[in-house]
Amino acid sequence: MASSGRLDLPSHWERQWDVAFVSAEKPSETDVTALVQTYSALLFRVAHSILRNRAESEDVVQDVFLRVLEHQRKLPDIRDLRVWLVRITWNLAIDRRRRIRPDQLDEPFAESLVAHTAPADQALSDAREIAATLREIERLPKPERHALLLSAIDELSITEISTILQRSESAVRALLFRARTRLRERLEKGKAA
Amino acid sequence: MNSQPVNTYPNSYPDARIDQVLEALRTTEPPTGLEQRIAARLAQAAEAGSLKTSPPAASSYLAVVLSAVKDHRILLAPARRYSAAAAVLTLLLAVTTIAVVHHATPVTTARTTPIVTPTSTTSRERAELQSRQTTPPSHAATLQVPRGISLGSHSPLQAAGVLTPDSSQQQDPDAIALAETRAPSRPAPPMPLTAQEKLIQAATRPGQPIQLAELDLARAPMLRAAAEARQTAIIDRYVKSLLAPFAAADALQPTTSSQPQEAPTSPPAEPTSNSSN
Questions:
Q1: Is the confidence metric ipTM above 0.90 for this complex?
Q2: Which residues in chain B are contacts of A69 at CB distance < 8 A?
Q3: pTM above 0.90, yes or no
Q4: Which among B61, B69, B77 has a CA at the least distance from the CA of A18?
Q5: Cα–Cα distance for residue pair B18/B27, rounded to 1 Å
Q6: Helix (H, G, I), strand (E, B), or coil: what is residue B186?
Q7: Tens of pLDDT along B50-107?
Q8: Hey, which residues 76-95 in chain B have their CB within 8 Å of chain A?
């Protein structure tokens, strides 16, 4: 975070800053349209990391902006609007994930990651490996899983992840290390089984 | 001899798979038109009345202006520069227009002359009417319009002979419009039947004149005899049409057809003597 309270942004995000900084930091009179233009892609990726389904993720993003519209008068009181939006998206995606069987979402996503030019047996093998990886990610302890999935979103820094998860930055780093180690061990164990 | 374990999960490179999954989540692109769909849903929600929001254009300009007051860098932003200038110009133009229009033309809300004047009013009624010059005339006191006046006319009250406005009021469109507004309403004429209603009517009411006439007992025998004669004539025409080819053949071969057929004769009786032989 910068000294003025503004978030440190990646270089590719600077382009959107001109549109965003009016409303994102201290939105005296928040422009919802600018918020949609600025944050819809980020929030979609946040929801997609949980749901792994494009249609469901888009529904979650729409629900988030409906809530923004409902709480428009309170927005100027929000200290960090970006983290607030990500947290709302995160919670809504987790709620939606509870209502859907994971295999309904993970298997199509795993198949979409397989190269279409690969032979059929190779593609089937790759899809099974990816599905097993996603399954093991879901079996991780909740704090580790959340830290790992949020770290996959490039726009979120460790500071923001720590704010979203309400933990310290060192705790987030430890969670990420443990999640990665545990996931690797389980996948190797599954390979040997 | 040790056998190789069967790989149910052939995760030869766990780290590679983990990185592949995380990279896929990282590089996921939002679907095309996501922002438009979100904006449409927000607009739909705002129209539904569940959310009380200001118009987006107005709020957008207001946000720009307020933010520009706080932070001058908003005016330097390329995406906002022209919007801010347009907002400021619109605001100045609106304030100027309101000020000029508001002070230039005084607004008169009270009418100083009576709208309509009854012809056969007495002096007392006329005095009452004059006393109500500044108040809107009541419906019953000013307009006594009999039923049957055409609403399409622009002077229904004058056509009915109830009101005779003076020359100044004859040209006053407001008075005419007010008189038409206060004219009594009448029920609308019956709607014409639709095509479906006409079909239903034709199906339920065949309207055959003979069937209806047969209900009259006095004319029943005559109509029944006419119907039987008509049926007999139809049958005769049918038989004639069937026998027409045979009639033509008879015309071409008159001899064969004209000779009467001989009556079958009994074979000659053989003599009994032959039979005895």
A1: no
A2: 42, 45-46, 51, 53
A3: no
A4: B77
A5: 14
A6: coil
A7: 544 444 445 555 554 555 444 454 455 555 567 777 888 888 888 888 887 776 655 4
A8: 77-80
